Amino acid sequence: MAETRQQDSPRPQPAGREAALVASLAFGGAVVAGVAWGVVAGMTMLTIAACVYVITMRGRATQLERMMAGVIRSKHRFEHQIDERLQAEKDLRAQAASLEEKGAALELARGQAESASRVKSVFLANMSHEIRTPMNGIIGMAELLLDTDLGREQRDFTKTIHSSGKGLLRILNDILDFSKIEAGKLELESHEFHLRPCLQGVVELLYSSAHDKGVDLTCLVHPSVPDRLSGDSTRLRQVVTNLIGNAIKFTSEGSVALEVSVVSRHESNVSLRFDIADTGIGIPADRQRDLFRPFTQLDASVTREYGGTGLGLAISNQLASMMGGKLGVESVEGEGSTFSFDACFTAFEEADRVQADIASLSGRRMLVVDTSESSRRVLRAYCEGLGLKVDEATGHLDAIETLRTGATGSRPFDFVLIDRDLDGVDGKEAASEIKSILELKGTAVILMNTLGRTDKPSTLARAGLDAWVSKPIGAAKLQSALAHVMADVDEPTDRERGHAASTPRTSGAATASVLLVEDNVVNQKVASMLLRRLGCDVQMANNGKIAVEKVESKSFDIIFMDCQMPVMSGFEATAAIRKLGPAKSSIPIVAMTANAMSGDRERCLVAGMNDYLSKPVQRDALANVLNRWVELEPDGPTGADTAMNEGNENDVLDREVIESLRELSGPDEPSLFAELVELFLDDTPIRIKDLDNAFAKADAEGIERAAHALKSSAANLGALGLSELFRELEGAGRENDLERAAGLLPNAHSEFQRVEDALKAELS
Known about the structure:
Distance between the termini: 200 Å
Oligomer: single chain
Structural class: alpha/beta
Largest sheet: 7 strands, mixed
Mean pLDDT: 75
Number of helices: 26
Low-confidence stretches: 1-7, 298-307, 352-357, 488-510, 632-650
Number of strands: 19
Shape: elongated
Helix content: 55-70%
Radius of gyration: 49 Å
């Protein structure tokens, strides 16, 4: 404290100056220190700022370096892409140049392929012609030989030649069809046809081969299926024939059934389904997908056992596709197969012309007796379609019991339809037993005769049968048999027969003057013999030039013209004939050629020909063409036929019908035949007069009615030519075609005169 006081006490002046100096120094030091501190602090801050700046700048530099590195990498990538693009453009230009070269090569190849296809078509056409020419001789001469008197062994040999020739022709047709399909040359035609006769013809054609194996072949066309259609009936028949033929081939027992039903119908367009079911060997599931490939069968053992080219199903599949459907199969190995396809057609409305006898069947009772379940099913459907009430029996004892039960009750049976081949019993004997039972006298018995049964009509009539019909049974056959039982015997109508069906004319009933133009000697012989068998007077020409000369000097009803001939071809001859004036140029000319390639028919029609007949020429096809184009005059046979028919004035009558009528007379009624003839000769002139009166009054309905009655009576006496004329008159009346009727009436008068003379000769 003392020291403090001493310090605080005033000092002398010199001491005060020192103190002030010291204070100033201290203040200055403080200031200096403060300044120094500020400088140091500022420097520190600057240093820190500089450090921060440096650090920041370094970061940005690093970023910039990274950015620059990225830019450089992008630049390199871009440059690489540009290089790749340039290379791609270079490659593209190279590819374009290569494609140009390939295009030129393909164009050249296409031209070569088209040229090869044309060469192939020409080759196939020539091969077809060369093969069909000898086939024409083989099949045609075999047919003619079968019409002669042969021993059993000779007939067997001839049938083998005939069937083998037809088999070879089928193989040839398969190969040609496949070639045409492969080349895209096969086209479907469109024409009007009747479905039921078309399919019935197929079934009848194949029935023999099925029957020989013990296989039941049936055809069921449901009543809802329209009959009058427009489409390619030939190709439809080809597919159905192939599928049924295959089914028969691979079926050793049981049945093969064709069934047709409606899939859909819109206005005039109808889609039909065709099912062909069999109980054959079946097809393994893993092999079904290969069935429709060309030249394919199940395996080599099948090929050896059953034969075939393996083309049938491939062709059928293609044809089904062209008809608007597809061929399919459902099969179980060891149980059978069902092949199905759809086909589209145009359907036409049909006039409702149900005959009175058929209409009266409604509600009547029918008993169907057959051991085959598939046959009973088809017959039931057809009978029910006619309005009948149907019961079934599997044997004759079962049938008799069912009939007795019905007779003792309130609903006896009106008809019995009984099969010839029942288990252990002949259907004819069973029918006789039924007719011998007193309470069943009112039941009509119709026998279904099987292939190979050749009982005479008189034998069947004496067995008590009211009617008989041969298998396979179709709706038209059944209807005809029932009409017979209903005491209105008549021929099938146009609808039942189908316009495509052919009825060969009785030899001598009518004669056509035919010019046959053919350079091949064998073909000349076959065609001329077939034409003469059909009642034609035939003249020959070896080439087109001779044909033109003959036409200039004589009139012909029809000309059958070969296409490929020396001196002048059939096409050139046709063109020349068409320039000869109205009387000559209107003669129907039918192309007769062995070519069977697409376009051949069209080429013939364009050349001025009226129709086309493919070789080998067969009798049914020839008869069909004659019936289509020639209005035959009922003159007597001339030319080469004179020697053949000389001294036989009864050629206008069918000998089989005459003999059957004589047999029906029997020893108990020897005058029955004479009475029938006299009744016909007395009644027919009266009806012909009615026909003339109807024509004079332009009464088309009267013409139809009178001709209808005359048609059946003439057929019953074996005057088939006269019956055919009345059938045509009936059609003319139905169609109100009085001009056509005017042309037919004189022929009917003169033909009746010939029939009258022939029947009087029979009585004498």
